[in-house]
Amino acid sequence: MLRIKRVPTVVSNYQKDEAEEGAPRGGGCGRNCLNKCCIQGAKLPLYAFKKVNQTETEKGLLGHETKELPVEFLDSLLLGEWEDRVQRGLFRYDVTACETKVIPGQYGFIAQLNEGRHLKKRPTEFRVDKVLQPFDGSKFNFTKVGQEEVLFQFEASEDGEVQFLPNAPVSVENAPSVVAINVSPIEYGHVLLIPRILECLPQRIDHESLLLALHMAVEAGNPYFRMGYNSLGAFATINHLHFQAYYLAVPFPIEKAPTKKITTSAGGVKISELLNYPVRGLVFEGGNALQDLSNTVSDACICLQDNNIPYNVLISDCGKRVFLLPQCYAEKQALGEVSSELLDTQVNPAVWEISGHMVLKRKKDYEEASEENAWRLLAVVSLSEERFQEVNALIFEAIACAGNANEDIAERSLGEADDKPQSHEEVDAINNSSCPAMVSGTHECLVLQ
Amino acid sequence: MDSQLSLIEESFNNRYSSWVRDALDDLPDNFTITDPSISGHPIVFASRGFLKMSGYSREEVIGRNGRIFQGPRTNRRSVMEIREAIRQERAIEVNLLNYRKDGAPFWLLFRMSPVFGKEDGRVTHFVAVQVPIVSKKHRRNNGVSFSEDGESGGLREIVFGSCRREVCSDSLLEFDRVLALDSDSRGLEIQDSCEASDLEKQRAATAINNVLSVLVNYSESTGRSVCGKRCNLPGMSFISSSLHISLGRIKQSFVLTDPHLPDMPIVYASDAFLKMTGYDRHEVLGHNCCFLNGVDTDTATLNQIMESIQTERACTVRILSYRKDNSSFWNFLHISPVRNASGKIAYFVSVQIEEGSKNQDRHGLSPEMRQLSAVGAIKVAVRSLSMSAGTSKS
Ligand SMILES: Cc1cc2nc3c(=O)[nH]c(=O)nc-3n(C[C@H](O)[C@H](O)[C@H](O)COP(=O)(O)O)c2cc1C
Q1: What is the pTM of this model?
Q2: A271: domain range?
Q3: Of A156, A169, A173, A276, which one has the fewest beta carbons inside 10 Å?
């Protein structure tokens, strides 16, 4: 069994006193949480989004423009509720008082000095060799957070129109999905989307949940509001299904990386490979409908988790682009293959770090932050080229099997494993002059079944 | 909408006189001009050539953002590049897939350039030229050239669609064996892109220069000169156009004040603030907010505001304020410090709500929530926009 020690992130004010559960005060457990004890009669704002069938209508662009609101509603709701929690003092620190900068260089990696995020927590052991683990109700999960940490309920509207109710009852039968604050934000507006929270789903992507996350990105309508997902083994710390999101109005390095198109799925989803980026990964975009994009990406995610391959997902550009990054850092760490120099920085390469947003805990690391350092860390996160192509073959097969792809994909993915196309090796060789040296990935991540 | 159209008219005429339109209409090129200081960053001028190419009428285009021409197959990375160029107030040239009004996609060479006001160095407009890419035979693949039948020695299975074919068909292109690389990373995506010929690039450059020279000429006639190069005036305090774009999206009545300048003057006032108070923008910029107070304004409340500013804390008060016409109203005022990327206070924002005014949000977000959401959006904009080197002071 592979384990690593790390400081868990405190995402809720109810997480730290896990051990010292006091006697109930008043009704329920006294914390006004989301569990059965307190949910009776609870009310929270509810935002119901309109299900659109097309990502963008090819025709009739004119119809499209009339609904161009100056500020998207969900965006305002989220920002307003979040600022309200700032005023109410629910966060552990003021993230806007944390120094941050864009590191000079070709990619513009972003560094933040955050000395307060990991205070007061002791390192805990995490199992990193199992991407799918059953839900454990005895551990911290989001049903234990206080209702004041929940911003609103988020669901598809029944009648196809956007709906907002400032005070909607939380009903168990409705299987509510909620958006809650992260009390240790890494940027302004840092929230967690917890699909069907009361069902206590483990950290595992399914079609419905990914579509919900994509809808949230679309509804926010802000290219600087990104959503992310970490699987277990890829630095998720809480095994209760959740996505994260926050605002940062600068481009992420991963969004700037060039891509090479691999294929287009039957649903019109363009699948490309990231080039010239330290972490190898796939980019999904387009699609005849949001559902197509969602299905293709979730088929890929499901394939990875079923094959026990840890991965991260970044949803960017208002839900128009999705990055999928299989990784093996935690495994290397557990096997003692990560240098102490990297480990000392205590940077856990989860989705945000992989996308190029580095949250640093030590002033020294912040001051010395360079593109080269960021690149060196991320290169260790990436699968080797060989392993990446193997994983891609699995992914393309899964997508093709799921019936979302045309024959071209099936053909290609089958041919790929033995007849490997030349790729990154050459790219790196040719472009070495313009990028920091890539740490060669000789290590192969094992698929641990 | 009407008020926005009149704003657009005004923005243009004040700077270039009303005759500039005729001069611009005489230019044969396809181009549009946008104004980043108007909410939504709309197109304020579209040339005849552009309208013909896109199939839209002038009325359908003026007041809209340029993104309405994009569609499902538009490369998102190129769109991001444009977004960032605007944010950094610099010129850019990219190949872009756009859609005509009838839904037909077409490739164009998009070249954009900022226009700076000489008086304060601020970006007043952006000009973009859209040259349709028509050449089919001159496909150049980073030094590797291919014959029409795809039989290029050693390169197996390569099928090159023309731009049009790539646009119209779903043909799977096999580029595995071609890693056509050059230092320009865009070259890597050539299979989904369309390379403009040197002639087209030349046309775009000339067209931009023609438009700029008309704008420069006509701006001189109003005494509010513009230029195509950034003119840095030391010591001037202004808000970058990118911050303007972000702030312009926020519909609430608010002002930003700069605590580092003497008397803490207003450095930004939203359209809604001007509408609510009856002042013109130039009457409030550079002035302390105290012009909102009048004879019956409670001094205890004013002291409360002063104290929260001194202690760098947010506060909410109900205060009697006065419009330009001297009529008064109860102002539900929220003030909050706003920090920049170094974590230091850059501005104080004050968001006003007129008590008793009708809740105009059709979805029913409470006035308090809208007030806080404005604060949030401003915090994000100011923090993010001060992060990178290379943008103008914000
Ligand atoms: C002067 C100007 C003209 C523009 N014209 C077009 C255009 O013709 N087609 C297009 O796709 N985008 C055009 N754009 C770009 C969009 O307006 C917008 O900036 C871009 O989509 C990125 O920002 P967004 O993420 O807000 O959409 C233009 C931008 C400017 C400043």
Answers
A1: 0.84
A2: 3-414
A3: A173
